[in-house]
Amino acid sequence: MTTRDRTHDPQAPGLAALAGLIADETRAACLLALLDGRAWTAGELARHAGVAASTLSEHLGKLVAGGLLSEERQGRHRYVRLADARVAQLVEDLAAQVSPRVSRRPRSLRESSAGSAMARGRTCYDHLAGRLGIAVTDALTVRGLLRQDTGFALTEAGLTWFDSAGIGLDRKGRRPLARACLDWTERRPHLAGVAGAALCRHALDTGWCVRIGSERAVKVTPTGERALSDLLGIEASALR
Amino acid sequence: MTTRDRTHDPQAPGLAALAGLIADETRAACLLALLDGRAWTAGELARHAGVAASTLSEHLGKLVAGGLLSEERQGRHRYVRLADARVAQLVEDLAAQVSPRVSRRPRSLRESSAGSAMARGRTCYDHLAGRLGIAVTDALTVRGLLRQDTGFALTEAGLTWFDSAGIGLDRKGRRPLARACLDWTERRPHLAGVAGAALCRHALDTGWCVRIGSERAVKVTPTGERALSDLLGIEASALR
DNA sequence: GTCACAGTTCGGTGACCGCCGAACCGTCCG
DNA sequence: CGGACGGTTCGGCGGTCACCGAACTGTGAC
After folding, report:
1. How many CB pairs under 8 A join A and B?
2. pLDDT tens, A138-178?
3. Which end of chain A is more exposed for a tag (fewer CB within 10 A), N or C?
4. What digits encode the pLDDT tens for the residues A40-73?
5. For chain B, domain boundaries
6. What is the overall mean pLDDT for chain B?
7. With an 8 Å Cβ cutoff, are B18 and A98 in contact?
8. Residue A11: CB less than 7 A from any atom in strand D
């Protein structure tokens, strides 16, 4: 037995080990990048994090072994993605907990514009976040499709709305239909869970919004502005 | 500037730093112990974790500086507790994420009975968890007081029930009235949030259950069995 | 076959950090 | 006042770990 055995709480080693996986700046940067829900290659992540390929390879090994990432080998590429929605939620929760960095001034114009694009609209693994996510969530709430006053759940009218909008909801799995996800830019809850994922997928599939850049940021298209206005009464000004 | 500056994600350092606070076995043991919602002295925690007082003092300094703990000095004592419900939720979420340790055999009879007592009923910061928490949540759901099929929220009938049971709900703050907390023993959601906290407080105040041992575990009293049966139709057998 | 390229393995290095005991500072009590 | 006790500070030690470059494996392209 190499580890010491002092504390009597059987959960402590596991908890520390899990946190330890996230407690490295390079690995944290990878997890945040992977929050876009897509699969990245090891090389892309290495360049993104600014470390040698060999270094990143070791990091990926740990993250996969720890169950945070799933991998898929294709030819000479190693694709990794977040293991599941629960991992994504965990990372997002941790990121939201980070002390609100007030008035941090961006170091460059590029970073500044990228930051504000992220604040306007982005995906959070599989659902919409940023001001866009907030606007949609608020609109659903105001129209009585979503209840936030007694918890966080769709109403009967909400179920009907999703159905008539042609957005199918898979109610089979164990994943909650609606769940609140705390936004780290707006610090307000927005719609996640099965409904949030379906809505985001629909928005990307039908061209309501498109991904910009190589990361999480998304932009609402003119088509999307019209659809959001028609279906939910969202003013275009609320998205800027 | 001493830290390196490679990744372009401004969140990565903060995320890694936060996870780093939890990524130590001793600090993890402290956080888990503090999940009972009470204030512990530094000495108690040092004995609990099995390290020297000087070591633990440094750990507490980091946890307080990182905003995970709040402290209160009284005479020669230093009391610490979890900073707020959000920190508690974070720790519980992380603990629940830890790979389900199947068939881990307890090392001693004491640990074994302590474990099963925790599985029967315990508090999770400020609300009920374990089989007790699950039983209450299920009963609320079956009786139409709580909806879990479209999210997680109290119903109108649920609000009335809390009112008629004499359990006041503070709907002022920003904290959600009802929220799902995933149980690490049962791996099922149970009631947290304002309603969960109020119910737990009421249960302890009126003697429905009492704390056993020095930690999170609670036991249902005969009075409590009657109350739970009368108010929610919970069979005593569901609590064993 | 040959070259380019993605990824991995490995040895070595340096920094970080958790740990302890010893000395020290306050508080409480007799 | 003096002694017990809770907590903190400090120096030093040892282990862990992220990092890199170099050598290597395997895939894909020409």
Report:
1. 203
2. 999 999 999 999 999 999 999 999 999 999 999 888 889 99
3. N
4. 999 999 999 999 999 999 999 999 999 999 999 9
5. 13-88, 114-239
6. 88
7. yes
8. no
CA-based diameter of chain A, in Å?
Answer: 64
CA distance A181 to A117: 19
What confidence tens digit (pLDDT) does each residue in B193-219 have? 999 999 999 999 999 999 987 678 899
Chain B neighbours among A 75-104 (CB < 8 Å)?
86-87, 89-91, 93-95, 97-99, 101, 104
Q: Alpha-carbon distance B162 to B134, whole Å?
A: 18
- Rounded to a whole number of angstroms, the distance from the CA of A86 to the nearest CA of chain B is 8
- CATH classification for the domain delimited by A14-88, as one of 1.10.1200.120, 1.10.3720.10, 1.10.10.10, 3.40.50.880: 1.10.10.10
CATH 2.40.128.100 fits B13-88, yes or no: no
Chain centroid offset of residue A102 CA: 22
**Which of A6, A15, A174, A186 is the mutation pick for testing B, counting most B CBs within 10 A?**
A15
Quick: pLDDT tens for B27-74.
999 999 999 899 999 999 999 999 999 999 999 999 999 999 999 999
Restricting to B residues 116-135, those with a Cβ less than 8 Å away from any Cβ of A are none
